Amino acid sequence: MGKVILVTGPARSGKSEWAEILAMQSEKQVVYIATATQNSADAEWNQRIAQHQKRRLEDWVTLEVPIELSATLADAQPNICLLVDSLGTWVANLLSQEDAIWENTVAELLETVDLVAADMIFVAEETGWGVVPAYPVGRNFRDRLGSLIRQLATVCEAVYLVTGGHVLNLSVLGSPLPPKS
């Protein structure tokens, strides 16, 4: 297994920028795995994607992977650094999956992460720090993403929280909870 890092935090906190810095510091070829795709009906969404694209170095390879994340990770060569941005968008792309299928999807992802020899940096949004969403789909998204972040963090060498433009290494500052049974 390569080095696995998780960068999490709220919207517009700098988490993607920190993940990009970590990817550059790896001194490996970076493969940027974008889980978001352009939407011709949403100019503001496309602008957000463009902001991310502008920060990428010219020699980085970009793959758009809205769904097949495990298969893409499994194909990675050991001498590269994969930067997955973001798990929140990936979860949103798969919200229509029934719970049992979703649990299998997460299990497959975690098994794949254990087997991949490449370094991996995952970016994930923190949700659930405020009001409980009023609609079932919002609660489902929040719960699935929160659970995925917790499970992934158990196999990470480092977990960073980026908030207010500051980076906290939770692996150094905190103690992990026991795995959920």
TrEMBL record:
Catalytic activities: adenosylcob(III)inamide phosphate + GTP + H(+) = adenosylcob(III)inamide-GDP + diphosphate; adenosylcob(III)inamide + GTP = adenosylcob(III)inamide phosphate + GDP + H(+); adenosylcob(III)inamide + ATP = adenosylcob(III)inamide phosphate + ADP + H(+)
List of residues binding GTP: G9, P10, A11, R12, S13, G14, K15, S16, A34, T35, A36, E64, D85
This protein's pathway: Cofactor biosynthesis; adenosylcobalamin biosynthesis; adenosylcobalamin from cob(II)yrinate a,c-diamide: step 6/7; Cofactor biosynthesis; adenosylcobalamin biosynthesis; adenosylcobalamin from cob(II)yrinate a,c-diamide: step 5/7
Major enzyme class: transferase
UniProt keyword annotations, A-Z: ATP-binding, Cobalamin biosynthesis, GTP-binding, Kinase, Nucleotide-binding, Nucleotidyltransferase, Transferase
EC number in record: 2.7.1.156, 2.7.7.62
GO biological process assignments: cobalamin biosynthetic process
InterPro entries linked to this entry: CobU/CobP, P-loop_NTPase
Active site: H52
Pfam family, one: CobU
GO molecular function: adenosylcobinamide kinase activity; ATP binding; cobinamide phosphate guanylyltransferase activity; GTP binding
Function: Catalyzes ATP-dependent phosphorylation of adenosylcobinamide and addition of GMP to adenosylcobinamide phosphate.
Family: Belongs to the CobU/CobP family.
Protein name: Adenosylcobinamide kinase
Organism: Hassallia byssoidea VB512170
Origin organism lineage: Bacteria, Bacillati, Cyanobacteriota, Cyanophyceae, Nostocales
Gene name linked to the record: cobU
